[in-house]
Design a protein that fits this description.
3 domains; globular; Arc Repressor Mutant, subunit A; alpha+beta
C-alpha cells in the first residue's frame, strides 16, 4: 500500500476498533472491560488520539467542547447495564486489573494490566529522577513521600497532613497531584465508602497499587519506553508524528526511538502519520 492507501485503511480500522459507529457501540459493562483490555490504553472523555470510552459508548466521536456542561449531557444520562456512565467509570477505577491515570496528555486514561509490565520500568526511572532531585517541585516531592509513607491516604487527610487545608492552596495542591498522576507515580481511586457530602480519592504509589500483580524484573527504561510508544500507536491506530512528543511527561524527544521502531517495522510511516503495523498485517 502507498501512504494514501495506508492512511485510508488506518482510518477505517480506527472507526471499527474505537467503536465509532452506532452499530459498534459498547452496551454492557462486560463489553467495556473487554474494550479497555483489548485497547490497553483508553481515554475516558476523548478528544485525543486514543480510543475514547465515551465515544465508544455513544458509537460516534465525542470530545469536550466549548459547550461546557451541555455537551456532557450527550452521555451523562446514558445507562450501561442499567447504571449511569459515571457509576461505571467509578467501578472501572476500583478494579484490580485497571488503573485510572493521567499519563496520556495529562487527561484521565484507563490503563489495562496488560501494559503494566511495560510501564513499570518507565515509572521506576521517573522515581530515580525524583530521588536525584531532577524532577518535581518540593511540594510534589512532599506529597509523594507522604503517600508512600502512609501506603494509602485520602485526599482530605493528605491535605491536612501537609498543612494545605486553606482555600488559597487549592490550585497548587491539585496541580501537584495531577503532575504526580501524569508521571504515574501515584494512582487515585475514589473512596467507595465516603463520608456524607465528601467525595475524595484514596491515593497510593504506583508500587503499592501494582504490587504482586506484575513481575518487577524486565525491560530497560529505553526498551520499555519504545515498547510503550509502539503499544500506544497500536491503540491509536494512527497518529500525527509531530504530536507524539506531547503524549507523555517523559517523551519530549522521541526521534531516535521512533526511528528504531520504524526500522524494525513495529510501526509504519505514512506521510505525516505513524500507523500501527497491524493495519498492514490485516491485509496480508
Amino acid at each position: 500500500m502507498n501512504a494514501k492507501q495506508l492512511i485510508e485503511k488506518a482510518e477505517e480500522t480506527r472507526v471499527r476498533e474505537h467503536r465509532l459507529k452506532p452499530s459498534l457501540r459498547l452496551k454492557t459493562t462486560e463489553e467495556i472491560y473487554r474494550f479497555i483490555h483489548d485497547e490497553r490504553l483508553v481515554s475516558f472523555l476523548g478528544g485525543n488520539e486514543l480510543p475514547s470510552l465515551i465515544s465508544a459508548i455513544l458509537g460516534r466521536s465525542w470530545k469536550p467542547s466549548a459547550k461546557g456542561f451541555s455537551g456532557w449531557m450527550d452521555w451523562w444520562s446514558v445507562k450501561i447495564s442499567d447504571q449511569p456512565v459515571a457509576r461505571v467509570s467509578h467501578e472501572i477505577e476500583g478494579r484490580a486489573d485497571v488503573l485510572a491515570t493521567r499519563i496520556f496528555r495529562r487527561t484521565k486514561t484507563f490503563v489495562s494490566n496488560k501494559i503494566w509490565p511495560i510501564l513499570d520500568p518507565v515509572v521506576k526511572y521517573q522515581k530515580e529522577l525524583v530521588e536525584k532531585g531532577e524532577i518535581l517541585s518540593s511540594l510534589e516531592q512532599r506529597l509523594l513521600k507522604t503517600i508512600q509513607a502512609d501506603g494509602s491516604i485520602r485526599t482530605d487527610l493528605l491535605r491536612k497532613k501537609l498543612g494545605l487545608e486553606a482555600k488559597e492552596n487549592n490550585s497548587r495542591f491539585h496541580r501537584a497531584l495531577t503532575n504526580l498522576e501524569s508521571h504515574a507515580l501515584i494512582i487515585g481511586v475514589e473512596d467507595p465508602n465516603p463520608e456524607k457530602h465528601l467525595h475524595a480519592n484514596i491515593w497510593q504509589t504506583w508500587e503499592t497499587r501494582t504490587r504482586s500483580r506484575i513481575g518487577r524484573a524486565g525491560l530497560s527504561y529505553e526498551k520499555a519506553l519504545a515498547k510503550l510508544i509502539e503499544k500506544t500507536i497500536d491503540s491509536c491506530v494512527l497518529a500525527r508524528e509531530g504530536q507524539i512528543g506531547k503524549w507523555f511527561q517523559w517523551s519530549a524527544d522521541m526521534k531516535a526511538t521512533i526511528e528504531e521502531l520504524l526500522l524494525s517495522e513495529a510501526i509504519l510511516r505514512a506521510g505525516p502519520y505513524l500507523v500501527s503495523s497491524r493495519v498492514r498485517d490485516a491485509n496480508n
